Amino acid sequence: MQKRLNKAAPEGEEGEEAAEEVGPVGFVQDMRADSRQWQWAGIGFGEQETYRLQMHLKKLSKDSNATMCRFFGKILGTERDYYIAETQVEAAEEGEDVEHDADFEPNGSGVNVYTYWVTHSTMGEWKRLPDVSPSDIRAAR
Question: Can you give the pTM of this predicted structure?
Answer without folding.
Answer: 0.72
